[in-house]
Specification:
This protein is of the alpha/beta class. Helix content is 44%, strand content 18%. The chain has six helices and five strands; from the N terminus they run βαβαβαβαβαα. A five-stranded parallel β-sheet has the order 2-1-3-4-5, sandwiched between helices. β4, α4 and β5 form a beta-alpha-beta unit. α2 runs parallel beside α3. The protein is globular and about 30 Å long. The N and C termini lie far apart (33 Å).
Length: 136
Amino acid sequence: MARILVAEDDDSVRAFVVSALTMKGHTVVAAEDGALAAEILADENGAFDLLLSDIKMPIMDGIALALTAAASFPSMIIVLMTGFADQRERAHGLETLIYDVIVKPFTLADLLAKVDDALAGKPVEVVSLGRRGLDQ
């Protein structure tokens, strides 16, 4: 299984994500903000298979964390999370650095599937805006 760093400032979301990934068999290290996650990455010389980070966080947001992680550890897989449409838009242009953005609220199955796909290197499914509108 994988070693995953989770950066999430919301205590309940962080606990849910850590619990889900741990139950799946992954080794998980959690940080409550991007700056702490960046310190952990540096201290552990990027010894993680995947970084799963919220975008909107105090001190250092997920985009700054993703840019920092990708610059220092280019082979690390990065998945971002957000519940805000404007934050998801901020992630556009990072396609070469991140695997995908998972939209909150997400289900346990959604989270685990996205992490599994990212770790397996499965291509991201692109859903057209027209189809996305029909599904919601």
